[in-house]
Amino acid sequence: MTKLLRLCLVFCLIPPAVAMDRAHFLELNQQATELRKQKDWPGLLKVMIEIGHELPGDTPRYLLRMASVEMHLGHTSEAVKWMAKYASMGLTYDVAADEDLSPLAKEDSFKGTAAKLKENAKPIHKAELACTLPLPNLMPEDLTFDVASPKAFVVSSIQHHTLYRVSLPPVRSTECSISELPLPVEAKRWPALAVAADSRRNVLWMTS
Fold first, then answer.
1. What is the four-CA torsion angle of 30, 36, 41, 45, rounded to 10 degrees?
2. N or C: more exposed end of the chain, with fewer CB within 10 A?
């Protein structure tokens, strides 16, 4: 089965995710605010875990809140794990300036994560032009590297509601070549947003 066919099957066969119950989510956040004011850390942890179940995925803010609660409960190792996950997103944070998390700065177990956060804050220098895209109105939204196709990327297009394979140009050329990936009609109903290559499963994931 080809990767492209697998992408189509993934899109067509996976049932839609259950929508977040916004009212319940807001209610949980209100509970969390009140519990924090009361400094009821065990109660707050329970509510935060429930909030995590409502979220489609961990957000940076959620990771910081969880680390903060764990620190108040004296669960330093758990706080380090949450901050390590935060750092793995490529983000940076001044832990020493955070009243709740500042004790982490003195923990040996946090040194690796602290170094990662510091590294994430460094500006990227010496960026070089790889190539230009030949489609002027592509309106690219996201880009992923396809390890299955050497020197090839996949880019999503808001304008054309689809995905394109992008191949790097030959030597002495500055224009990439692109070819549209055939998607099912349902996949092209809305603008294509995030795209990710899943090398373990040999599929492409996209959101629209």
1. 30
2. N
Q: What mean pLDDT do residues 144-170 have?
A: 85
Tokens of 184: 């099912």
pLDDT of 109: 96
Q: Is 18 left (phi over 0), alpha (psi -120 to 50) or beta?
A: beta
Query: Cα 113 to chain center, whole Å?
Result: 18
Rounded to the nearest 5 percent, the helix, strand and coil shares of the chain are: 45, 15, 40
Tens digits of residue pLDDT in 66-96: 999 999 999 999 999 999 999 999 999 999 9
Element (H, E) at 3: helix 3-13
